Amino acid sequence: MSTQAAHPALLIPGPIEFDDAVLQSMSHFSESHVGPGFVATFGETLTMLRQLFQTTDPASQPFILSGSGTLGWDLVSANLIEPGEEALVLSTGYFGDSFADCLTTYGAKPTKLEGPVGGRPQFPEIEKALSEKKYKIVTVTHVDTSTGVVSDLKGLVQSVKKVSPETLVIADGVCSVACEEIAFDDWGLDGVITASQKAIGCPAGLSISMFSGRAMETFKNRKSPPASYFASMKNWTPIMQNYEAKKPSYFATPSPQLVHALNTALTQILARPLSERFQKHKEVSDKVKKAISDLGLQIVATKPEDQSHAMTAIYLPDGVQIPDVLPKLASKGVIFAGGLHKAIASKYIRFGHMGVSITDPNRTDVDKALDALKTSLAECGYTKA
Predict the structure, then answer these.
(1) Domain 9-17+273-379: which topology?
(2) What is the spatial distance between Cα 123 and Cα 138, in angstroms, rounded to a whole number?
(3) Helices (H), strands (E): how many in the chain?
(4) Which residues of the sequence carry a binding annotation for substrate (predicted)?
């Protein structure tokens, strides 16, 4: 039995439900962020990130910074591209659009390629754009939490390398790392940014990222200094390298309690082959998608190959409104999220299915949620045609 207080199952696309041991790690006694105990934990945690991202290249550089997933955009925008340089932003929803806004804030010149609502830009149009202009970076949201659309990272890197091999490929993996496969080295990625509170299963407050040796060389060869102080790779890289080498170092104070929780979460994840974890998320996602279809409902991500294994965005039937269905779900002990994509925000809800709700065989969160959805829609007057 869980030691947590009774509460509704949190099945939004993050924060997700957390394991007892992870939460208990947060109650670690206070300690110095440069003391030997914490330095050892932080160093081990950085090394475990290499396993999670599947990189064995010593030139790859992990970062764990206090902040949300959004800080990852700043890390990319302030360090890997300079004012006036071009970025190709592949947008599949709200978060792709926001990444473009962040790049603009730092003086870069983003060009957006947008997929239709529920779809993604296709490789021929991406290759055409890359052949017409020189881009410093291509950014892609691996899973856009506003639509549940997943992008094909492996295929994207192949397309970019074919047309513009010098262009860096950066993925926003906030809603994909630890539930969708990411083979950092094998696929040739240059950067993946993520956060602690989604499939990694650690409370919110950590910006987590991995950058390739090529990306780090791009940073070192900048003509201008980074445009941020806190998000500067110049300031953070030696800190991360020292910690991973188990040497105390200081630029700004990390959160020892969150790092302990992340260490516990990564230890749990890496205790089993990652392939098993990815397969389990796929199986549960397929089950959810079938149940949604059986209810006669439409999924926002239109093609099966574009549908994330982390979450499902579900169009509500005619006559059923978000303010009607979400409270009914909550009364049955299930929390879903409302819509976020501005074009369809009032028309759909979002069901997050990742992390411990999926991998812990003692949890019934997903079955409970599917039953609650069926009952709640019926209470709203919906009957399948």
Answers:
(1) Aspartate Aminotransferase, domain 1 (3.90.1150)
(2) 13
(3) 14, 14
(4) 350
Residue 153's nearest CA partner among 134, 136, 139 is 139
Euclidean distance between CA atoms 12 and 353, whole angstroms: 8
Structure token digits, residue 163:
């047309």
Neighbours of 39 (CB within 10 A): 21
Whether residue 50 is annotated as binding a ligand: the answer is no
Give me 35's structure tokens: 């003391």
> d(Cα 351, Cα 330) in Å, to the nearest integer?
13
CA distance 84 to 110: 9
Segments making up each domain of the chain, as ranges? 9-17+273-379, 20-270
Is residue 200 predicted with pLDDT exceeding 80?
yes
Residue 2 has pLDDT above 90, yes or no: no
Tokens (6 digits) for 135: 């881009």
Torsion of CA 162, 117, 174, 324, to 10 degrees: -170
The CATH number of 20-270 is 3.40.640.10
Of 203, 199, 183, 180, the C-alpha closest to 358 is 199
Question: Do 143 and 310 form a contact (C-beta atoms < 8 A)?
Answer: yes
**What is the Cα–Cα distance from 313 to 307, expressed in whole angstroms?**
9
Coil, strand or helix at 367: helix
- Segment 282-290 shows an average pLDDT of 98
Structure tokens at 292: 């949604």
Q: Which of 209, 208, 222 is nearest to 107 (CA)?
A: 222
67 dihedral zone (left: phi>0; alpha: psi -120 to 50; beta) = left
Residue 217: CB partners within 8 Å, gap ≥ 6? none
Integer Cα distance of 380 and 385 in angstroms:
15
pLDDT tens-digit map of 218-230: 999 999 999 999 9
Rounded to whole angstroms, how far apart are CA atoms 116 and 149? 11
Return the residue matching tokens 């987590």: 208
Tokens of 277: 């974890």
> Is the CB of residue 177 less than 8 Å from the CB of residue 308?
no
